[in-house]
Structures are given as C-alpha cells and as structure tokens.
Amino acid sequence: MAVTDEADGVCGQSILDIVKECDNFPYHNTSNPEPLETRMASTWQFFIPDDPKPYGYLTSSTVDKMPWTPDFEIISGPVKQVRLSPKSGASTPEACQVAMASLISLARETGLFPELGKRGRELYSVLGAPYPFKFDRKAHALFGLVTRGVHMTVYTHNVDGEMRIWVPQRSLDRPVYTGLFDNSVAGGVGADEAVLDALVRESAEEAGLDEGFVRRAARACGALTWFNIKDSRSGSRGMLHPGIQYVYDLEVEADVVLKPVDGEVEKFNLWDVETVRKTMAQKKFKPSSALVLLDFFIRHGMIAPEEEADYVEVVSRLHRRLPFPVGA
Amino acid sequence: MAVTDEADGVCGQSILDIVKECDNFPYHNTSNPEPLETRMASTWQFFIPDDPKPYGYLTSSTVDKMPWTPDFEIISGPVKQVRLSPKSGASTPEACQVAMASLISLARETGLFPELGKRGRELYSVLGAPYPFKFDRKAHALFGLVTRGVHMTVYTHNVDGEMRIWVPQRSLDRPVYTGLFDNSVAGGVGADEAVLDALVRESAEEAGLDEGFVRRAARACGALTWFNIKDSRSGSRGMLHPGIQYVYDLEVEADVVLKPVDGEVEKFNLWDVETVRKTMAQKKFKPSSALVLLDFFIRHGMIAPEEEADYVEVVSRLHRRLPFPVGA
Prior knowledge:
The structure is a homodimer.
Chain A: E1 2-5, E2 10-14, H1 15-22, H2 34-41, E3 43-47, E4 56-59, H3 60-65, E5 72-75, E6 81-84, H4 93-110, E7 123-125, E8 134-136, H5 137-143, E9 147-157, E10 163-170, E11 185-188, H6 195-207, H7 211-217, E12 219-229, E13 240-251, E14 265-272, H8 273-281, H9 287-299, H10 311-317
Parallel strand pairs in A: 3-6, 9-13
Antiparallel strand pairs in A: 1-2, 3-4, 5-6, 7-8, 9-10, 9-11, 10-14, 12-13
C-alpha cells in the first residue's frame, strides 16, 4: 500500500519500497542471477584463519586504498578474497587481534578512510567467530562485518485510547543520517555487552529513561536483519553493511516524557500512527529505523495481510538470512 | 538452549533444532554449495506460461509417475523443468486451468498418488500468478507450490497472572501428523478467501469460538515462511512443501473454553509455557506449528536474545525468503 495524501500532493513509498531502501543488497535468484553476480564481481569476501565461512564483504574501493600488511592475503580470483593470516606468529586469536589493530592504525594514518575518524573508542565483536575477536567499531564498516544494534519503540495511549509513539529527530550536528527521524531508543551493542544491557544504557543516555524501569518493562520482540549498500546520507556511500537490530517494545504511561540527554537527539515528538506512517513514506526516517517501525506495525496488527499485497515479501525481507555467521 | 529435564531423563531439541525440523530444504550457501546443488539435481522447477519465475518444485518421483499430457513440456536438462504450455488453445488463464484440471484428474485415476485422495474439494490459488489461477488443494503438494495457512495462539492468564496456552491434540483419526499437538487454531486459506475470513471460519469450525469475537479481538502479528521436505508423518515423505503461515494472537478471559467441534481435534489442553516448551522439545508438535509457538515466545519476550545463542539464526529462518512468488 502506498501512502497518499492528496491534500499535500504527496505520494509516498509502499512498505516494500521502504524495506528496499535499506535491504538493497541483491538476493540469490536462480531466475535472475545477474544482479548478485555483478555485485559479487566487485566484492571481496573477508575470511579469518581456519574457517571456510566469510565474515564480511569489502568493496573494491576499500581494498584498493587499504595499506595491507603481510598479515593479510589479497586474492583477486576467481573469487575475490581478503584472508587474515597473521605472519607474526601462529593463527592465534591474539595474533589476529594484533594484526587487525595494526592495519586499522595504519589505515587511519593514511587519511583515506573518513569512516575511521581520528581514533577508535568502542570495540565491536566479530559475530560468530570461533574465538573472542573484537576491534574498532568504525573498522567494521570497512570490512562489511555484521553489526548489532538495539532498537526500542516506546509508545503510550492517550485518554481516547489512541496510540502515540515517541519519535526522536536525530541531531542536526550528527554527521550521519543528519536530522532524520529515528526509533525512540536506538544504539549499538558493544563487544562485551549483553543486548539488554545495551538497551538499558542507551535508554538512559539518549532518552533519560530510568534504568530499572527499562530493564523490568521492556519486552524483547525479535530481531530484524538486512543487508544495506549505504547511500550518501550514511557518509560512506557504497559501503556494504549487513545489520542485526534486536527489537524491543516499551509501553509507558501517558505522563512519561522522553527528553534528549546526550546531544544525539534534536528533539522528541509524540506522534500518532498516521503521522509516523506518512513520515516513513516520505523517506524522512533513517532507513534501518523505518524497518523497526514497520515490524512494530505488523506485530501489532496495524498492517494486516488482507490490506497489503506485499505482506509476506516484506516480513521475509525484514528477517533476511545473512551470508555470514550471526551466532553469539 | 536445549530443554533438559533431568527428572524425566529427557534431553530435548534446541530451538534451532525445532526450526530445522520444519525448515529443512537446503539454503544457498557460497561456502558450502553442495547440499543445495545435490537437491536441485533431482528437483524439477515448475513454470507457467510467459513467466521466468518458478512457482514450485516437483520431485523426480512425482515427475516419473505423472501421466503428463501434451499441455506440459518436460525438460530434463541442464535445469530440470516442467513447463505448463497448453496445446489446447492459447496460453490463456482458462486454458491453463483446464490443462491442470485434466492432468490432476488423470493422475487421480492412476491410483499412484495417494496425496490426491479420491476427489478434490477445495481450491488453492497459485500465489503470485499474474492472473487468477487455482486448482485442487491436494495437487499443490505434488507441484511443490506455496500454500497459505492461518495459525492462531489463544492464551489467557490465570488468577496468579501466569500465562496459559490452549493446545489441541490432533485427532487420532486424522491421516497426517496424527495425534500430534498443534496451534490453538490452524487451517488453510482457500483460493478466494481473505486471510482473516479463513481465521474466523477455522476458529468456529475447530474450536467453537464466536465469529464476531474472533474478528474483533484477534491480532495479526506477521507471517512465518519455511521450506519443508516432508517426513513420513505427513503421509507424503520426500515431497517439497514451501509454506506461509499467517500468525495471529488472541488473548481471552480465563472463562473462555475451547472445545473440539469438527472432529479434527482430539481434545484441547490448557498448558503453562513450560509444558508447551518441553513438549515442543520432545518433537510432539506438528513441526510447522511448533514454529508458530517459537515465534509467539520470541515476540512476547519469553525467549530473549541474551539467553539464546541461535536467536538471530532462528528468527531469520522463521521468515525464510522463498524462491517463489508470494504476493497476493
């Protein structure tokens, strides 16, 4: 269903369009293999020692610019591969971490990778690695590794029983997805962090919600998975980003007010469902966060299978099976 | 997490095992292509006129036994295909329906296809076909076409606030999945039926629930998709079955009682969550219906990401993207 608004002359995106805005890496498709084959011809698979499974995809642009050290094998055909294979010792977890940290440090010095910023602060895990393996969060983008976020929809009902959803606008100072609308609470899950702990931390840092209350009342509702080729709003156009978003719901009383705390949020709005849907259709949400709201509407029966020809396609794509390990 | 019960000496399946019990058709996997390639080498893709997309997969056993008419082209390589291509006129929707109905009638006469029964009663749609195209529900199994079901979890809370779930046992007289446990309400969606109408009908027919109440109070919560290679309990061992299950929740008061109506249910049980989970782990549920309960537990926060290493893999596989059209 496309959201239309004749008064505004706005004809928005269908819900499948909203999904494709984020989940836009080609799928395996026997009756139309060309889009995936073309994409893979310029994509480098990233391997760690002693493991046949790829952990991420790099673009040719990244591979060309990267100041590779002898710890990495760059194999250009027939399948393009970057293999971490530490020369400075055995293929131990420690040697892998050292090799990766050295490379990231060199890459940062080149000044060719704005994604890396001036310094790394947070560590992210290589998900599903057979040993603990973590490095600079910002370098995950370059290697196209799976990242984990935690996203919560905070909602209430007004005196007439109508649902209202807390919708922050991202700060106009943030370098990525500047000024777009977002989920009530959203943030990354650190390397050594439990998902619920990350949610509790972000809820306090970004929205001023009480930690004990969130821990007690937030409800885990699943996880979304998608594979995004970044657009210019991300600041890293063309980079490959497979993502997991753990999804939580939190119903609050009408007197609970979310407030910006750490400067990442410009302001919080309390919107009715129609306003949220219209704003999504106008592409004014951060693309991956729009998916969390679509899933919310589907789980709450506000998008019904009878009304939506793309219902099954949408629900499947919200839970894409990624071509990388995703286990804890 | 495997459910263990030391008192009983029962060590059950993990939740990923429960998913794999139903979603067991191989996935596309670049680092291990062999299982899918082997399977496809003995699988025939079914095409309808003027459409490059396959609509179903037939087994070699079905293709060998079928009394093909001149309306079908059987192409054995390099990609095995069965192409509906009506000779009795143009490739009109009517010619397709006639060709298919004739074939099914001949196939039934051979007596080689117990799946077809003695006669067809219900029609199912070929999902996503560019024109209305429907035929005998029972023949869908032979062509490996996508079927649509509607499944509802009916639950209540007792005086202590603990959740109880209505769990029917399938009749001991039913020929398939005999005596296994099932979802509170479950049934197929007919060719010309809206999903909610099918739910309302099945709720009355199988559980004696009031139609107006179900229409008003049942909540659509998404759709599960999986690709099953049938086991012997289905009565059609080895057949290929891609399925969609539209999922609904219905919370009822403690005094609502579900009762068998049409003979498909042996009896209804009102179980606590622990009993449901233990019974699932013991493989005593119909495999696809166990997935509906897993999804219920995930959406209700009763399986949390911190507790379950396979959380993301499970959620993705509950929403498999099928290699066939799934649009309305």
